[in-house]
Automatic annotation (TrEMBL):
Coiled-coil ranges (or none): 272-380
Signal peptide: 1-20
Organism placement in taxonomy: Bacteria, Pseudomonadati, Bacteroidota, Cytophagia, Cytophagales
Gene3D superfamilies: Tetratricopeptide repeat domain
Annotated SMART domains: TPR
InterPro entries named in the record: TPR-like_helical_dom_sf, TPR_rpt
Source taxon at top rank: Bacteria
UniProt keyword terms in alphabetical order: Coiled coil, Signal
Name the record gives this protein: Tetratricopeptide repeat protein
Organism (species): Aquirufa avitistagni
Length: 477
């Protein structure tokens, strides 16, 4: 799980934010007063354990101890805030008769409301433990504070943070979800929770969380970029294209968005090409299987003819020669059996290949449909890079990509030429070679302009190859 990194701030505590400025003598007096109160209330409860007011006073004293800003005091008893909660429960129990709570019980319960004493005490020690990198202990205090104040966003947020830091991923997720449910708006938490969903492969939740963040911060580009990246990682190319087109409409001069749209179109084209190749490869497997079956049948026929010939000789052979012919017959029959067994396997392979291909006519229709989509996308694709160059004529990536499109087309045509047999090449080779040259000529000016913008070694090598293919005597600096 990706960690959300936040700086934990000190929450409002019992002594308030002016603690650092107060007189040292006054601080010492406050320390003494709190420690005396703890000692006094402990003794009072021992003497009169059935009086609810004494239990309430004791809870207040322990909360004050845990809430004190000076950690040398607040950490004297790390269980102080939890003990105080137990003392509150005892005060409520003693002041409740026949299900009806008395005034002391009600006062005691108020200490647990919202950001009252219990919350401040727990958060204070939670912060101290966080600052000391004792994240496990910090989580204990923070989570209890969040439990006591279920509508408080701060404790929910920091409970999630420390939960992650001590690798309590499930608890972190729960806290962040609670934080968002009660109105949390921190961008780091929105981003972090989206990443948690992404890692858990909960795509809809991840995208919905980013959409929630975008609604809160409509001008924030980081959240939009993260959603774009997430759509790509989820292979939701059409959604990514739709989002980016919306961004281009809002800011038509953003070259990065225009360039990324071009890349998305190329990605979609490659995906469609993969589908085409899968259909074509399945058909090729069928043809290959058919050739193997035909070859095996031819092989078997040779032995069948040989068997007939030897059997004919056996009939007219002298008694001494018959064993020789019979041995030949046995050997040939064994070969025929082996060939037939192999033929059966090959025919099974052919049947499997034909089954995988499915309906030939439907496949052709699908291929035509895919090729049509590819052609349409290819027609639109260069426009995004050209628009980027209209905004910035020296935009290297757009220059390179326009060159690469034609360069890759040339390479693809060249592969087809290399696969031609000699007879086909004699008939079609010259025309195809001219197509290759035309594509290299299309790529050349974009690569040359790109090299002026950026002296990239890989691009230099590509340019050298283009010059060689076009038989141009030109050096690349």
């Amino acid at each position: 799980m990706k960690k959300v990194v936040l700086t934990l701030i000190t929450v409002v505590m019992a002594a308030g934010s002016t603690f650092a400025q107060v007189d040292k003598a006054l601080v010492e007096a406050q320390k003494k007063s709190i420690l005396d109160a703890v000692k006094k209330t402990d003794e009072s409860v021992k003497k009169s354990p059935t009086k609810p007011r004494l239990w309430l006073d004791r809870a207040v004293a322990y909360f004050d101890l845990a809430s004190f800003p000076d950690s040398t005091v607040s950490t004297l008893d790390l269980e102080a805030s939890f003990k105080a909660i137990e003392y509150i429960a005892e005060a409520v129990k003693l002041d409740t008769k026949d299900g009806k709570k008395g005034s002391i019980a009600k006062d005691a319960e108020k200490l647990l409301d919202g950001r009252e004493k219990a919350y401040g005490a727990l958060m204070n020690v939670g912060v101290i433990k966080y600052q000391g990198k004792d994240y496990l202990s910090s989580f204990r205090y923070m989570s209890k504070a969040s439990e006591i104040a279920p509508k408080d966003t701060m404790s929910a947020m920091y409970t999630g943070v420390v939960a992650q830091l001590c690798q309590k991923d499930a608890e972190a997720r729960k806290s962040y979800e609670h934080y968002m449910a009660i109105g949390g708006k921190d961008m780091a938490i929105i981003y972090g929770l989206a990443q948690i969903y992404k890692v858990a492969k909960e795509e809809e939740k991840a995208l919905a969380m980013l959409d929630q963040g975008i609604a809160l911060y409509p001008s924030n580009k980081d959240l939009r970029n993260e959603k774009f990246n997430m759509l790509i990682s989820f292979n939701r190319i059409d959604q990514a294209i739709t989002q980016l087109k919306g961004s281009v409409e809002k800011d038509p001069k953003d070259v990065m968005n225009l360039f990324n749209l071009g890349l998305l179109y190329e990605n979609k084209i490659n995906g469609l090409k993969d589908e085409v190749n899968k259909i074509a490869e399945a058909a090729i497997k069928v043809e290959s299987a058919k050739r193997k079956v035909a070859s095996q049948k031819d092989k078997a026929e040779v032995y069948v003819d040989e068997l007939k010939r030897v059997k004919a000789k056996l009939k007219t052979a002298q008694p001494k020669q018959k064993p020789v012919y019979q041995a030949q017959i046995n050997k040939i029959e064994a070969s025929i059996k082996a060939d037939n067994d192999e033929l059966k396997l090959l025919m099974d392979e052919q049947a499997e290949a034909e089954k995988a291909v499915g309906d030939v006519a439907a496949n052709k229709a699908k291929m035509d449909e895919l090729q049509g989509k590819i052609a349409k996308l290819r027609e639109e694709l260069p426009g995004f890079y050209i628009r980027a160059l209209e905004v910035d004529a020296n935009y290297y990536d757009a220059l390179y990509q326009l060159g690469a499109m034609s360069y890759n087309d040339a390479a693809e045509i060249k592969r087809k030429v290399n696969a031609m047999d000699m007879e086909t090449y004699k008939k079609e080779g010259k025309a195809v070679e001219e197509q290759i040259a035309a594509k290299y000529k299309e790529a050349l000016p974009y690569f040359e302009r790109a090299l002026v913008v950026k002296k990239d070694d890989d691009l230099k090598e590509i340019l050298r190859q283009v010059y060689r293919e076009l038989k141009m005597e030109k050096s690349v600096d």
